[in-house]
Amino acid sequence: MSERLVIIGGVAAGTKAAATARRRNAGARIVLLQEEADVSYSACGLPYHLADLDRIPRSKLIARPPEAFRVDGIDMRTRHRVEEIDLDRGSLRVCDLQADHVYTEPFDRLLLATGARPKRLNVPASPDAPPIAYLRSIVDADRIVDRLPDIRRVVILGGGYIGLEAAEAFSRLGREVAIVEMMPRLLPAFALPLGQAVEERVRENGVELFMGSAVSGLDRKHVVLDNGERISADLVLVATGVTPSTELAAAAGITLGHTGAITVNAEMQTNLPHVYAAGDCAESYHRVANRAVWLPLGDVANRHGKVAGTNMAGGRAVFPGVLGTAIFKVFGLAVARTGLGEAEAVTAGYRPISQVVEVPSRARYMEKSRNLLIHLTADRASGKVLGCQVTGDDAADKTIDTVAAALWGNLAVEDLADLDLAYAPPFLPVLAPVQVAGEVLKKQVGAMQG
Amino acid sequence: MSERLVIIGGVAAGTKAAATARRRNAGARIVLLQEEADVSYSACGLPYHLADLDRIPRSKLIARPPEAFRVDGIDMRTRHRVEEIDLDRGSLRVCDLQADHVYTEPFDRLLLATGARPKRLNVPASPDAPPIAYLRSIVDADRIVDRLPDIRRVVILGGGYIGLEAAEAFSRLGREVAIVEMMPRLLPAFALPLGQAVEERVRENGVELFMGSAVSGLDRKHVVLDNGERISADLVLVATGVTPSTELAAAAGITLGHTGAITVNAEMQTNLPHVYAAGDCAESYHRVANRAVWLPLGDVANRHGKVAGTNMAGGRAVFPGVLGTAIFKVFGLAVARTGLGEAEAVTAGYRPISQVVEVPSRARYMEKSRNLLIHLTADRASGKVLGCQVTGDDAADKTIDTVAAALWGNLAVEDLADLDLAYAPPFLPVLAPVQVAGEVLKKQVGAMQG
């Protein structure tokens, strides 16, 4: 009998694993169980969908509809919720939500791609409080779209990347937007000048910022802060972070890591060799921090899924780890990072040194040139690059990707200064931003050693 | 007595060396001899200056005027031509072109930053032939600007990057443009589909292409080709390549390399330890080809100059070599490369394997996403990345810089596939272009090994 591969979850990691396993092993029986009606959609695209429904309709976010998987011989079951994993029997208890019917599904190999879910707001709310929304799943977005005609003013809880992307989306839709951030400044994981650049950009675009305060309750058309302030709201968008969906795994006794997500090895196996985990519910090995981290990001989920799918289907693939690279855009300003920030580097056991430089993105006389703020961190002793953070209206992505490739190769700041990059006036200044940053930090590493 | 450092040439390498030496050694006497009236200008910016004189006037191309160097205590002598190097006496014969006066200038250390000059057109021309122009120095550009009112139609000889940039500049000025290219196709060093993409873009923009033919002469308002064709022209721009300016060095017995440019070691010293060479007159070590190459490019000249200036002033710096990274833009299409092409890889002793992929630059549903053509080359046996070529309207520069950083770290195609890059829909698709290219080539490397 052919092997039964069962996958729980069908957004990024799950669908990628299913498609990869199918290509690798034509004989296996592949079942994918997805609670939502939609599969294989770009959750990262939701803010862009919201901001421009005409140009990016719902359908464009969906990479492949369920039928496309079925055509490939994948038993794709949407609106099916897994209620329990029975490891002794090698089966799942599944609820078909449409038919309201519970049944048992056997597996030989199992993939947990259960994702992550938003932290829920847990404060007292009066019956006439503004409605609460999230922006994590495509259904979350549908709900917001339905409410849009009634929304004039949105209060967003959380100034992380989802909160900021949503703030821009609502602004573009002509809504008034306020952000409530518990920390005293935006993006505390970023170097101060970079966080300030983001704060300035957000304020310039008319978004009100309430920082250093938490929400204590919701009452009639208002959000109430713990300092007593009341902010008027037609909708409250909660974007205070996400939590890995690990209940099924935990209940079955599968090991979770220090991050709360599922522990996996490089083959994406959990502590049980025939049970895999991938995507936002699983940890990743961080190549610079040299430890497991939890980074719920779409591209990481995709790569996880590919490795898990290959291995489940009898192939052999290894997930080589992450660098913690991430980027988002808010009102034209790109905010990007890779590797470790200074505090993270200390935690990881390095003795870091950092420097901020401000440099043009292209030859100064070219119209598209904009200044970048680059915060580069290296190990004092070895000069090894540890991480980089960038903000800018132009080429922040290029700068970070260049540093990410350098980090992958374990390059030192001296190497960054020496890199041979693609110079021409429309693309770079004669000294590239990463070269300038590398040069500045190299002198300090040298001075420390001398 | 303080050391006398003398630099011949003041565009990129020479001025960078002078400024670097000044910072490093406050006591040295630094003399810079430059034949032109201008110093420290962006030769790479000339086509952009030409295309838009209002936005990029001549003054914007000049990074630092001669006075700025003098304020720093550099004896900057413009309109001074060096006529001979006397190595025995450690002196130069210099002609002050303004005063029409010849004198002797002694040196302890000498830097040759004599640059490169365009190959001259050497065909019979009637007295009423169209005027000939070049686009290498700022004076060349001045001459073209002076003639602009009389020019309706330009014939450009040479379809390399200068010819193509100039074609775009003249087109933007509303002039009719034709390009004559001796080779049967544009950019023969690039993979065929990439060269074709450029050809198509150039034709779409109304530029006539005459390929596979050479110029045999010029007569009344026409360029005459060797196949008898006659092309009407008000101006003939010769952009058939450049030649290193090495006459002074050669006459003094300084060693030239197989490329015709001056041989240097990693300290930028010629065969004589107190004589340095940098910029377009000097060779560079190619890190992938593992041999000396000649790459007359502005950013390389700048880095050469920095190393030479540091060493001349008593410091110690090493030029770590180049990857052959280069980029230009023509009618919106970026054309970029790093490392070796397939034929170059064979010459360098590798057994290469290559693949072309066509991939979107950003999430498909984002408005700015455009397709990239990527030609990736790796070593069959080891999978080591050897080079990459890219064309595209968006993110070709980012793609090449990412691969260039990977090449610097000796990464393999498998690493490219695994890289952790900055994904978000406005910046990349969930699988980055370099990841797709790496993945495709990795399978072939694997298949070859298997």
Task: Walk me through what this model shows.
2 copies of one chain form a homodimer. By secondary structure, chain A is an alpha/beta fold. Chain A has 3 domains: 4-40 and 61-116 and 243-312, FAD/NAD(P)-binding domain (3-Layer(bba) Sandwich), CATH 3.50.50.60; 120-240, FAD/NAD(P)-binding domain, CATH 3.50.50.60; 332-449, FAD/NAD(P)-binding domain, CATH 3.50.50.60. Chain A is 28% helix and 28% strand. A 5-stranded parallel β-sheet of chain A has the order 3-2-1-7-18. A 5-stranded parallel β-sheet of chain A has the order 9-16-10-11-12. A 5-stranded antiparallel β-sheet of chain A has the order 21-22-25-24-23, with helices on both faces. In chain A, helix 1 packs parallel to helix 9. Chain A is globular and about 65 Å long. Chains A and B meet through helix 9, strand 21, strand 22 and helix 11 of A and helix 9, strand 21, strand 22 and helix 11 of B.
